[in-house]
Write a structure and sequence with these properties.
alpha+beta; 2 domains; Glutaredoxin; about 50% helix; Glutathione S-transferase Yfyf (Class Pi), Chain A, domain 2
């Protein structure tokens, strides 16, 4: 069996993060291959013919290629169902998918713009959040407060991939010193310590080229 995960070269993408955490949780061996879109590497004809959309991340499993992180997570879950990274109960699985889609939506766009992932893994943000980003951050915290259960380590009865994805979003704020309620912060920091999550967080990253 051969699995290749194509990633961006600085290991800061939340979408690469979701795919790598899924692979680690399932105990699957894989090869990570960086592709630099700024150098046109994702526009190579061979890559486009495999992935259709030419996006990163993409996964190639025994000759079959699929891009987009949600599609990759779903494919891995269906192909390698144990251990699960999505809830087993239909309603919980639907809620998990809802949250995964929402974390990628326009509701979080302003926060993602002002707290890009480079501020998590390279230099921290220094400026306070602007008006739109502050509203976005408030919405993230409100949603987190609704789904985090007091005293429970996971959003559902068992860990699932959206635990990692929500923790990632909250750490955009936590790592730059933005205000996050103590209960939400404690949950996110505990989720940040999971071994599959740390396997991504603790990667030694190459320096970002200076302009």
């Amino acid at each position: 069996m051969s699995i290749v995960l194509y990633v961006e070269p600085h290991w800061v993408s939340p979408y690469v993060f979701a795919c790598m955490v899924t692979l680690r949780e399932k105990g699957l061996d894989f090869e990570a291959r960086p592709l630099d879109a700024s150098r046109g590497e994702t526009r190579a004809s061979s890559y486009l013919s495999q992935t259709i959309t030419g996006r990163v991340p993409s996964l190639v499993h025994d000759g079959f290629a699929v891009a987009e992180s949600s599609a990759i997570v779903e494919y891995l879950e269906e192909t390698f169902p144990e251990p699960a990274v999505l809830p087993r109960a239909p309603r919980e699985r639907a809620r998990c998918r809802q949250l995964m889609s929402w974390l990628r939506s326009d509701d979080t766009a302003a926060l993602r713009t002002e707290r890009p992932t480079t501020t998590m893994f390279y230099e921290r943000a220094r400026a306070p959040l602007g008006e739109a980003a502050a509203r976005s951050a408030e919405k993230v915290i409100e949603v987190a407060g609704r789904v985090i259960r007091p005293g429970a380590p996971h959003l559902f009865d068992e860990w699932c991939i959206v635990d990692a994805e929500l923790a990632f979003m909250l750490h955009r704020m936590i790592l730059s010193g933005d205000a996050v309620p103590s209960g939400v912060r404690a949950w996110a920091e505990a989720a940040w310590g999971r071994p599959s999550v740390r396997s991504f967080v603790d990667i030694v990253r190459p320096p970002i080229p200076q302009a």
